[in-house]
Amino acid sequence: MLSAMLSSLGPDTVQILLLAGIGVGVLLAVLGIGRAISDPTPAAARIAGTSGVTAAGYRSDLIKLAQSDPSGVLAAFSPTSDSERLQVSQALARAGFRGANAPAVFYATRLVLGLGLPGAFVGLLALAGSDFNWFPIGLRDLLNGLSGFAILQVLAILAAIGFFGPAIWLRGLIEERKRKIEDAFPNTLDLIQIAVEAGLAFDAAMTRVATEIHGVAPDIAEELLVAQSEIQAGRGRDKALMAMGRRTGVEEVSAFAQVVLQSMQFGTSISDALTVYSDEMRLKRELKAQEKANKLPVQMSGAMAIMMLPAILSLTLGPVVIRYINYFAGG
């Protein structure tokens, strides 16, 4: 029955339906991957609601204190080693993906892309060799003109891009997020210091500052809110703050956690400790700006030398080369 229906539709219609089915399948796979990575939890949503954060701006996902081993289909794509799985989880957390199934989804994405891109290319080759009328003529001629060795090269390149591309993208996303946190953290620390001096408790000051700066610095605000969510869920303040420093991968945030914990441990004033650390961060920020300014003349000299050297060589050696060419051509 099904074969009779397909034969009555014609080859072009069948190919169109096949492409439409592949497109729908890819769309559903992308939506499923995004859903699994985000992994929102009702507990985190309730805590975020009590802290006054708008639901549109805060991706509320509570970091679990003890990550359970993945089960089901995702277990096949997860690393077998606990240390490797923890390392991948920390890298994904630094990029902002804190779902329980984020490592498995990451590996599944690499596998799907590593196999899907070559498969899509093979499908294009099959369509180029058929009588598909809607296929671009120039692309069809290009694909039909590829040799067997060229096809193997393209398949290898696509497989490498699909497998290593997500890792490169994740590394770039981590560096970009770290840069945003480094830029926003000094001002965030000043606001926390002001809130503590105004009479708020440290936890309330962090929540209030995170709520206020969420529109301009969502990354550091989200980290502060996640730390407060962990504390409200029963995790120790020391572990929550140190985990925040590890998640961000920013040295200043880890030092901030240590300063706060030492101040609470020895009973000193948190306001004074934040004041001293804020001054140190401001000085460090100024020194970093001076360092970049001092490096600029050297970098400009290198760029100018690279741009001017070919022109200088052409001016100095050009007449000599022309003279020798004319001499040997005339001889």
Detailed description of the structure:
- The chain is an all-alpha fold and 331 residues long.
- The chain contains twelve helices and no strands.
- It has helices at residues 2-9, 11-38, 42-50, 82-95, 102-128, 137-144, 148-197, 202-212, 218-232, 237-248, 251-266, 270-330.
- Helix 9 packs antiparallel against helix 10.
- The longest helix has 61 residues, at 270-330.
- The protein is flat and about 90 Å long.
- The chain starts with a helix and ends with a helix.
- The model is unreliable at 1-6 and 34-67 (pLDDT under 50).
Give the tally of β-strands: 0
User: Could you give the distance between the termini?
Assistant: 85 Å
Give the radius of gyration. Answer: 29 Å
**3D shape:** flat
Major sheet: none
Alpha plus pi helix count: 12
Summarize it.
Helix content is 78%, strand content 0%.
Question: Which key phrases capture this entry?
Answer:
331 residues; mainly alpha; flat; disordered N terminus
Write the layout of secondary structure elements.
Elements: H1 2-9, H2 11-38, H3 42-50, H4 82-95, H5 102-128, H6 137-144, H7 148-197, H8 202-212, H9 218-232, H10 237-248, H11 251-266, H12 270-330
Helix pairs in contact: 2-5, 4-7, 5-6, 5-7, 7-8, 7-12, 8-9, 9-10, 10-11, 11-12
